[in-house]
Every structure is written in structure tokens, then in C-alpha cells.
Amino acid sequence: xxxxxxxxxxxxxxxxxxxxxxxxxxxxxxxxxxxxxxxxxxxxxxxxxxxxxxxxxxxxxxxxxxxxxxxxxxxxxxxxxxxxxxxxxxxxxxxxxxxxxxxxxxxxxxxxxxxxxxxxxxxxxx
Length: 126
Description:
CATH topology: Rossmann fold
Helix content: 10-25%
Low-confidence stretches: 117-126
CATH class: Alpha Beta
Distance between the termini: 68 Å
Shape: globular
CATH architecture: 3-Layer(aba) Sandwich
Number of helices: 3
Strand order of the largest sheet: 2-3-1-4-5
Number of strands: 5
Order of helices and strands: EHEEHEHE
Mean pLDDT: 79
């Protein structure tokens, strides 16, 4: 008789300021395409993907959160029971510091810089 292993489920919540690329990262992962048009996420979008790995099957629940400031009060409810928080950020973002300081309760936190900068974008400090 074949043994059927339980399907492992993981909740990944994507957080960050608006227009840093949260939806673009998720779209690339889900559909292997990149969309150059920008459309703001309102509230939250949910996507699910089942992955078949060598020794197990996993279901990823991807939560694409809105980056607008008016939705920030909802962050604690989004990250509740999450397996991973992926913080997508612009290196000049104030939200990154706030998220890490106030909500660092995840078992795994991934910081994802989705923008490539030239040296002219950085302020040098002595």
C-alpha cells in the first residue's frame, strides 16, 4: 500500500511600500512572466501554487498586500499565522525599519530589494 504524505501548506505574506514590486515578484513566480504595467493592489490579493518537490508536495499561499499607508494598520492581521514574511523594499524606504521593529514576529523574514540602483541614488555618509 502506498503511503500518502500530508500536503505541507505555507503562508507567504508579501509586504512593502506601494510600487516596490511585490505583485511583480509574485506574477513572475506564479506565471513566469513580467508585466511592466502598474496597477495598485487594493487591500490584499490571494494566490495559491502547488509545487512538486523531489520528496514532497507543498502548497504555497501567497498574500499580496497593498502598500499604501492607509492599509498599514492591517499588517498584523495579515502576518498572523504566516510561515514567511517577504518584505520587498526600496533601499530608501522608511517602511522597512518600521516593519522590522514593530512586527518582527515571524519564524522566517526575507528582505527582497527589487530595484537596481546606480551610485547616483545613494547618499554618502561619513
